[in-house]
Structures are given as structure tokens and as C-alpha cells.
């Protein structure tokens, strides 16, 4: 058997292809493709990523993207260690807060870990107090402008309702923020309707309302037909890059909810044009294509739940986000 060499071995990276892509070894082919697209967008040098990280992502995809290549690669991996008793210690864990990777399925609020731990850092101005850190929802919709914008108000309310109906139960450490703004030294205000912090990942969520129908996503626009005017989703790339720079220890993703005036969860139908998932045709840095509610929730849970430490609430990061609410 050929000795195992990790995709990042050339750079001294001991991670497996699955770890590079941020998925479990049991991930489906569809989950692998999603993870690869997200990682490629995030690490691409043209999007502000590191070239070494991008090369590691490409090597990881080459190792597991093809079914036969993945089969050979899996045979080269060492056997996975026997399951550890839930809550049982690992070497070096003494006195350390428990950390979990690979999802938070089946967890409860009692499993959530706060950093700094309760009783620590309470006099530190950069740490959010424990009472607010334990709150699932933060902020409020952006105030109305001079001109009425009923669609925006409705979109924000329905998006928040959708997020709050699923994520707090599925991901106990998830903290939903509404009305996020980053300005000042960035030269302009970067408003985001909603954001979700979970562990070391932050998902920025925008939304767009369209007439009912069937739409095709080509990587840049939603098209309802040859004669219909294309719909451009909100541009999240600038805000994603700014928050990635402001929070270097957190991976930032971008998602867009597509809704009609009658249903925020199942409509409209969004199909993908051939080649629309290639990073080079994307006009924004979205982690996943725009999607109706049910599909969007799946993408959010995949992104947030499979990241590092999905049961950790970082009180310093949360404080930074809360300070930038409207």
C-alpha cells in the first residue's frame, strides 16, 4: 500500500484532504463538492486568500473529488481511532475547555462552552458579559429610511423568523445577529441584514424577493426566462472581505435567501446552469448559491456545524459583532 501523504504535505501540512476541506470522512460526494467550492472561493488569492491554502484545497479536491481517486485515497489513510466515550478526556485536555469538530448534531445548550469561561475576563472590556453571550438573538432590523421600503422590512422579518426557527435548536452555540454594520476605517458602511456566529465561523446572510416561478442561477444572476429581466442578489463580497480582515481567527461565509411574497421556505425553484458552480464564473464570494429557505438552512448548518469548535461561543468575537449592530 502506498504510504499516506496529506494534500498539504509539501508545505508540512499534516491534515487529510477531508480536514483541508472541512468535512468528515463520511461526507457525501455532494457535500464534498460544496465544501470544495466554498474553500476555493475563500482561499483564492484573487479574493484575498493565501496561495498556499488555495493549493492545499486544490490538492485535497484532486485526492477525493473523483470516486475512484477517493477510494484509493481512503485506502491509504490510517484507520480512524476507536470512538471516544462522549465527554471522555483526551491526552492534554486536562484543565482545557472541551472542543468539538465535525458538527454539533445532538448537542444541547448544556454542551455549549464559553470562551473566556464564566468568571474569567469579566473585567475585560473586549469580552461580552455572560448574560448577553447566552442570548440567541441580538440586534434589530435596520431602521426605515426616508423612503418606504416595505419589501426590505418584510424580507428581514421573514429571514429572521426562518433562521430563529431552526438554527438555535440545531446549533446551540449559534448566535443570530440582525442589523450588522461595518464602517469607519473601511471608508464606507457595509450593511448586512443578518449574521450567524457559530464556533469559529461567521455566516453573513442577505435576501432577495422575487416573483414566484422557476429561476436559473448562472453564477451571477437569477434568470426567470429569456425575456425576463435578471435578478441580481445582494452583493456580500465586500462585507465578507472586511469582516474576514476584522476577525482573522474566524472563517466568514456568504449566503443569500431567495423568497417569494408567499413562501420563504420552499419557493421559488432555483436551478443551476451548467458550470455555474465554477469559482471563475462567480461574480461574488458566496459560499453557496442563492437558495430558498429549506435549502439555505441546509447550507448554513453544513457551513456552521462542520467548522472548528461548533459548540464554542467566543465572547470576544461576539462582543465585536454586537458593537457593530445598528
Automatic annotation (TrEMBL):
Region listing for Disordered, in residue ranges = 72-124
Q: Which SMART domains match?
A: DnaJ
Which Pfam family, an example, fits this chain?
A: DnaJ
The residue ranges flagged as biased composition, category Pro residues, are 80-89
Q: Which Gene3D superfamilies match?
A: DnaJ domain
What name does the UniProt record give this protein?
Uncharacterized protein
Q: Which organism is it from?
A: Micrococcus flavus
Origin organism lineage: Bacteria, Bacillati, Actinomycetota, Actinomycetes, Micrococcales
Amino acid at each position: 500500500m502506498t504510504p499516506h501523504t496529506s494534500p498539504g504535505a509539501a508545505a508540512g501540512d499534516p491534515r487529510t484532504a477531508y480536514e483541508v476541506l472541512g468535512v468528515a470522512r463520511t461526507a457525501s460526494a455532494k457535500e464534498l463538492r460544496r465544501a470544495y467550492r466554498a474553500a476555493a472561493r475563500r482561499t483564492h488569492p484573487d479574493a484575498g486568500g493565501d496561495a498556499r491554502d488555495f493549493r492545499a484545497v486544490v490538492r485535497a479536491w484532486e485526492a477525493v473529488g473523483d470516486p475512484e481517486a477517493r477510494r484509493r485515497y481512503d485506502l491509504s489513510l490510517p484507520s480512524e481511532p476507536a470512538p471516544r466515550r462522549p465527554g471522555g478526556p483526551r491526552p492534554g485536555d486536562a484543565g482545557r475547555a472541551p472542543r468539538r469538530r465535525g458538527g454539533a448534531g445532538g448537542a444541547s445548550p448544556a454542551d455549549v462552552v464559553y470562551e473566556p469561561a464564566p468568571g474569567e475576563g469579566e473585567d475585560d472590556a473586549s469580552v461580552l458579559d455572560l448574560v448577553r453571550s447566552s442570548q440567541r438573538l441580538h440586534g434589530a432590523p435596520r431602521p426605515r429610511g426616508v423612503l418606504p421600503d416595505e419589501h426590505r422590512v418584510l424580507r428581514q422579518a421573514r429571514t429572521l423568523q426562518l433562521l430563529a426557527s431552526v438554527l438555535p435548536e440545531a446549533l446551540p452555540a449559534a448566535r443570530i445577529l440582525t442589523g450588522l454594520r461595518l464602517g469607519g476605517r473601511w471608508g464606507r458602511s457595509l450593511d448586512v441584514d443578518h449574521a450567524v456566529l457559530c464556533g469559529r465561523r461567521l455566516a453573513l446572510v442577505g435576501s432577495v424577493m422575487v416573483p414566484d416561478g422557476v429561476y436559473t442561477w448562472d453564477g451571477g444572476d437569477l434568470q426567470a426566462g429569456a425575456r425576463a429581466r435578471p435578478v441580481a442578489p445582494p452583493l456580500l463580497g465586500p462585507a465578507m472581505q472586511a469582516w474576514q480582515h476584522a476577525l482573522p481567527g474566524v472563517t466568514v461565509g456568504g449566503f443569500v435567501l431567495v423568497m417569494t411574497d408567499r413562501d420563504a421556505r420552499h419557493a421559488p425553484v432555483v436551478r443551476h446552469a451548467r458550470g455555474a458552480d465554477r469559482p471563475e464564473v462567480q461574480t461574488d464570494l458566496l459560499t453557496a448559491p442563492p437558495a430558498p429557505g429549506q435549502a439555505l438552512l441546509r447550507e448554513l448548518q453544513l457551513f456552521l456545524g462542520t467548522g472548528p469548535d461548533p459548540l464554542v461561543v467566543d465572547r470576544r468575537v461576539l462582543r465585536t459583532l454586537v458593537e457593530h449592530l445598528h
